[in-house]
Amino acid sequence: MLFPTFHGCSCVCRSPSLSNLDRLGETRLLYSRSAAIAERHDSLLGLIHRGGGSATALAEALGVSPATINRDLSYLRSKGHPIRARRSAAGWSYAMDAAGGTKRATSEPRA
């Protein structure tokens, strides 16, 4: 079943040239990307729990850009993780706020 193309829409999922197999591949790609992001968030929280560091140091440890780390930190804070930033001569460093608790994100639900 093919979806009609809408005027002004360049959305890949509505392209009449995609077969059902191609759309399934797109779904797998999105899931794979989501799983990789969740894994990166877990790794980032682990690094911060072990002492944190600057966005640049965290980015190098995880193989992403400092901008990605800053977006991830904003997301994790919005989910209730007590990550605090401290200004130093070398820039900002990140650590867990001991007074705020020790919530950790995992990609697996708790039983």
Structural overview:
With 111 residues, this protein is an alpha+beta fold. The protein has helices spanning 20-49, 55-62, 66-78; strands at 53-54, 83-88, 91-96. It has a three-stranded antiparallel β-sheet with strand order 1-3-2. A hairpin with a 2-residue loop joins strand 2 (83-88) and strand 3.
Strand content: 5-15%
* Strand line-up in the sheet with most strands: 1-3-2
Mean pLDDT: 74
Low-confidence stretches: 1-10, 101-111
Number of helices: 3
Number of strands: 3
User: How much helix is in the residues?
Assistant: 40-55%
Please write the string of helix (H) and strand (E) elements.
HEHHEE
| Cα distance spanning the termini | 39 Å
Secondary-structure content class: alpha+beta
CA-atom Rg in angstroms: 19 Å
Largest sheet: 3 strands, antiparallel
General form: elongated
Summed up:
The protein is of the alpha+beta class. The chain has three helices and three strands. A three-stranded antiparallel beta sheet has the order 1-3-2.
